Task: structure prediction
Amino acid sequence: MPITVPEGLPAVATLERENIFVMDHERAIHQDIRPLRILILNLMPTKTDTETQLLRLLSNSPLQLEVEFLRMASHVAKHTPLQYLLKFYKNFDEVKLKRYDGMIITGAPVERMKFERVDYWPELCRVMDWSKRSVYSTLHICWGAQAGLYHHFGVPKYELPQKLAGVFEHRVLYPAHPLLRGFDDYFWAPHSRYTKVKKSDIDKIPELETLAVSKRAGVYLAANRNGRQVFVTGHCEYDRDTLAKEYFRDVEKGIPAAVPENYFVGDDPEKVPVFKWKSHASLLFSNWLNYFVYQRTPYDLSDLGAP
Result:
């Protein structure tokens, strides 16, 4: 089924080359079906890359989606022109009276900062509080997962001795959980971060359950038992070359950077990375959309309650 996005979004050209059906609003309004409304808070500096990655995964389902993008008005983006943001992104004041079936909060390159030192933290807290009332299920990614766990449940983050970068094997803890249906017992997923959360802290929270872990990368997937909040500490949305781009960028800047683990063939940065997390990423997003958004969201979103 198609995915509806803002007209003119650059990611559309890439998706159409991959035979992904994308519609503009004018065509979508003639479809006799209520699309799922998805809001993406994109905190990543590479906006277009992240837009494409997430839309690619969201489109891989039989559900029709209507996607909007949200930005932090209290933050000045250094890598994206303001005109681009004004054209394709909304600010919180423009969405706070709306309701959505699902929401995604991305990662951000600020994990070594204390949460309260991030310039848009107060605004992000307002958005996360609002999401509990006006969004049925919210998917948090990487730093977004750490921020959500900290804000909603007081789960702290811990700085790592060095950056965790690479593709790591994970173990499914609850195979019958809807988010994990169809998963193999073990699967691979990328990580790129300087901090972590601990399973022991998450397990202290009655509302939460840890669903997948890695010996090397720690907690990967956790969720609220009511299905309204999902936390993914890695980056399954990454393209084949995303970790490579990050690695070469750090090397060029003189930042000490280890070669991403389990990524390049023979750990040789001159060789093409092995893409071994694509199927897992697709299944995770499809399960979230199906079991925690589509099947549980009320047809009339006003039933979520007043914002």
Notes: The chain has one domain: 3-298. Residues 149 and 155 are 5 Å apart (CA to CA). The chain is about 30% helix and 25% strand. Confidence is low (pLDDT under 50) at residues 27-32.
